[in-house]
């Protein structure tokens, strides 16, 4: 069973790398997805994400122990970052193993975009309901009423 339930998505606007370099491009993508924080000096989350990307190429899910060995990080550190990646909707748990939510990075970004758009749709719906309840009007409605 696979679970899709994100809680927090962080998107950071950054300038794309000027020169093409696979490692820099992966770091840019990861940074833009909010995988780095000031506290993560060893870029543990990035290293974990890269291992999951590599395993995704083979369609294989990894256990937290396998990730810990591959990244030379403690299992506690790995589990902490895996939870962050799950909360952001980038990875999922399947049969007690971890894998990218979808099979490639382009699809992953598209899925994150859909997640964000669903949140904005909910926000817009609520804002419309609140506007109506509070008696606030849209500018277009105000202008059309003045013209009448």
Give a written overview of the molecule.
This protein has a two-stranded antiparallel ribbon with strand order 1-2. The termini are far apart. The chain has 2 domains: 22-102, Orthogonal Bundle (Arc Repressor Mutant, subunit A), CATH 1.10.10; 108-147, no CATH class. The model has no long low-confidence stretch (mean pLDDT 87). α2 (44-57) crosses α3 (64-71), α2 crosses α4 and α3 packs across α4 (75-87). The chain is built from 6 helices and 2 strands; from the N terminus they run ααααββαα. The protein has 148 residues and is mostly helical. A hairpin with a 2-residue loop joins β1 (91-94) and β2 (97-100).
Task: Walk me through the topology.
Elements: H1 22-32, H2 44-57, H3 64-71, H4 75-87, E1 91-94, E2 97-100, H5 105-134, H6 139-147
Antiparallel strand pairs: 1-2
Helix pairs in contact: 2-3, 2-4, 3-4
Morphology: elongated
Taking the alpha carbons of the first and last residues, their distance comes to 58 Å
Strand order of the largest sheet: 1-2
Q: What proportion of the residues is helical, as a percent range?
A: 55-70%
The biggest beta sheet, please?
A: 2 strands, antiparallel
H and E order: HHHHEEHH
Name its key features.
single chain; 148 residues; Arc Repressor Mutant, subunit A; 2 domains; 6 helices; elongated
